[in-house]
Every structure is written in structure tokens, then in C-alpha cells.
Amino acid sequence: SSYQMKKFDNKNKGAIWEADKVSDKHPDLTGSINVDGNDYFISAWENHANTNNAPKYRLSVTAKSDVDFDEIPF
């Protein structure tokens, strides 16, 4: 019998890492996520509000297809 490597399935999965914060407006965590086969960038900002019902992080997602990589200055 032959061994066949199973392809990693990242559908509906994602990961975030600590980001280099340049200013308070930059996210604390960044990464990517796949939702129903579509890839997104994900950013998270730690919420420092002093209320009991405040979320720990605020999230933002941007479709990778919406990003014009020619416009990014790096």
C-alpha cells in the first residue's frame, strides 16, 4: 500500500500573532483567517475599557481580494 500525504485543510480556520505596535492605532495582534474558502486578514486590538461587559479584543477583517498589494509601500 502507498502512503499518501493528506493535504492540510485550512477552510474556516485562522491564526493571529502579536504584532509590532508602531502606534496605539496599530493592532495588538494580526494574522489571517479563512471563511467558507475566502481568505481574510484579521486584526485585533486589546480593549482597555473598565466595564464588566466589554470585550477583551475588538476585531477587524479585510478580504485579501480587496487589498491592492501594489499600493503597499514596503
Keywords:
0% helix, 38% strand, 74 residues, 4-stranded antiparallel β-sheet, mainly beta
Largest sheet: 4 strands, antiparallel
Distinct helical segment count? 0
Strand order of the largest sheet: 1-2-3-4
> H/E element string?
EEEE
Instruction: Assign a percent range to the helix content.
Output: under 10%
Question: Would you write up a description of this structure?
Answer:
- The protein has no helices and 4 strands.
- It has a 4-stranded antiparallel beta sheet with strand order 1-2-3-4, with no helix packed on it.
- The radius of gyration is 17 Å and the shape is extended.
- By secondary structure, the chain is an all-beta fold.
- The model has no long low-confidence stretch (mean pLDDT 86).
- The protein has strands at 14-18, 29-35, 38-46, 57-63.
List the helices and strands and how they pair.
Elements: E1 14-18, E2 29-35, E3 38-46, E4 57-63
Antiparallel strand pairs: 1-2, 2-3, 3-4
